[in-house]
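Marked as duplicate of an earlier ticket. Keeping the data here for the record.
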Amino acid sequence: MFSEKELKREIIRVMKVLYERELISALGGNVSARMPNSKEIWITPSGIFKGDLHEEDLVKIDLEGNIIEGFMRPSIEWPLHVAIYKKRPDVNAVVHAHNPVTTGLAIAGIELEPITVEAVITLRKVPIVPYAYPGTDELAELVAKHIEGARALVLQNHGVIGVGYNLVEAETIVETLEEVALTQFVAMLASGKKKLRLIPYRDRELATRLYRM
């Protein structure tokens, strides 16, 4: 079980990894996490360079957005984060990144397909959330509507969301999204108009039964 101090260190580590992998930009992307069953979350700040955050930069808020600890402004996407925690008691970490390939495919009207084992088992179904302006209650409501039963979301013309029981799981979801999207993009380029070779339906059904997806 993480302590809150370890939780904050994990948030900083995840942000650094995402920045180095170019899944977030200097000021774009945000991460939050909480201790299991807590009604308070730690979230990254707004308007601060995301590749070199420090513990004192993080902000603790409750599920209504009230600041409990910290001196910075919480991410403008805090409504999106708290909407997920309210909807999903099993979620203790939310990662919002700007995966370029995943986002680009969605802009082109292309959904992720079950092309790899990771796509089937790790990502499962990935809904695309209709566009809404970042940081708004409208976006938070749309995310809450689509997050039920999902581990990942694509935000149209915006980015992606990965959720998990902990930060490692949420981080894995976001990284796997980009891996699958890049693999699918390469396959589409190489195959031209040919149909992609998907994981066989029987194996997808087996994964559904094994993992109760």
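See parent ticket for discussion. Residues 167-191 form the longest helix (25 residues).
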